[in-house]
Design a protein that fits this description.
single chain, globular, alpha+beta, Cathepsin B, Chain A, 8 helices
Length: 309
């Protein structure tokens, strides 16, 4: 009987008259209760990150333009690595503890594409240099200077990697992040702290396709950037392995988001990716999340490049 009531509630939500995004709040206790009642592998809750936010405000964070027709990067071949050599679980934070940088916060700018790309390259400089080069690189450089993308209005992941290859970015100390309120600063040509204006580049830029190849890339070269589809329930994620419930296929697609994959694992028979978000530590599992492999198109738009040491 309770399951039948829950089903009716889900259908009612799906057929209800939409509420204005200007007035509808991200923290929706009814939605949280419904998710947890039908809970499979994850829990929803009140994330401090979105208290007082409307859906219109939250959607501004989703700046990954997921248009496959824009892809112009070669696909990397990793056939030289045997599939049998892929471990059952992997966490880049344990493999390279000094090189995986902490969670950052894009604030109120649709710069997820720039944060994920700059953080992947930052980590890879540390890994490639055996810990000798631990610079935190500047997402603001991408937001303000990459003319092939749209700053706080979003970006295309392959374009960002072309920029990292062709132009490169400076350190975060040289060009600090100031676009948090939704307006990008003018592109700088000198460091605000007086240090040398040095660009950190990627040697190349490429796409990785397929679950096993993504794992091979991470375990040998470091984290990668991916773009995926975000639905309303994701904003309420607090712990566990995120996946959409069956009834959420009537839910609203909020936009595309870019994040950094740092590993993988399996729990109770569910294979997942271990991921770093850019919404601060007051969201999810202290800023990280796990997502079921194959969910939300998570493996369809994965990019990276080798640090040019």
């Amino acid at each position: 009987m309770l399951k039948f009531v829950a089903l009716l509630a889900c259908v009612a939500v799906a057929t209800a008259v939409p509420v204005s995004e200007d007035s509808a709040f991200v923290v929706d206790q009814d939605m949280i209760n419904k998710i947890n009642y039908n809970m499979s592998t994850w829990y929803a809750g009140v994330n401090e990150r979105f208290v007082g936010w409307t859906w219109k405000e939250a959607k501004q964070l989703l700046g990954a333009h997921l248009n496959k027709e824009t892809f112009n990067l070669p696909v990397k071949n990793l056939d030289h690595i045997n599939d049998k050599d892929i471990p059952a679980s992997f966490d880049a934070r344990k493999q390279w503890p000094q090189s995986i940088h902490p969670i950052r916060d894009q604030q109120r700018c649709g710069s997820c594409w720039a944060f994920a790309a700059s953080e992947v390259l930052s980590d890879r400089f540390g890994i490639a240099s055996n810990g000798k080069e631990e610079a935190v690189l500047s997402p603001e450089d991408l937001v303000s200077c990459d003319s092939s993308d749209m700053g706080c209005q979003g970006g295309i992941l392959s374009n960002a990697w072309n920029y990292l290859k062709d132009t490169g970015i400076v350190t975060d100390k040289c060009f600090p992040y100031t676009a948090g309120q939704g307006t990008a600063a003018s592109c700088e040509t000198k460091c605000v702290d007086g240090e040398s204006f040095t660009k950190y580049k990627s040697k190349d830029a490429y796409q990785i396709t397929g679950v096993d190849n993504i794992k091979k890339e991470i375990m040998t070269s470091g984290p990668v950037e991916t773009g995926f589809m975000v639905y309303k329930s994701f904003m309420s994620y607090t712990s566990g392995i995120y996946q959409r419930h069956w009834w959420e296929f009537w839910d609203t697609l909020e936009g595309g988001h870019a994040v950094k994959i740092i590993g993988w694992g399996s729990e109770n028979g569910v294979d997942y990716w271990l991921v770093a978000n850019s919404w601060g530590t007051a969201w999810g599992e202290q800023g990280f999340f796990r997502i079921k492999q194959g969910d939300c198109g998570f493996e369809e738009q994965v990019f990276a490049g080798h640090a040019d040491i």
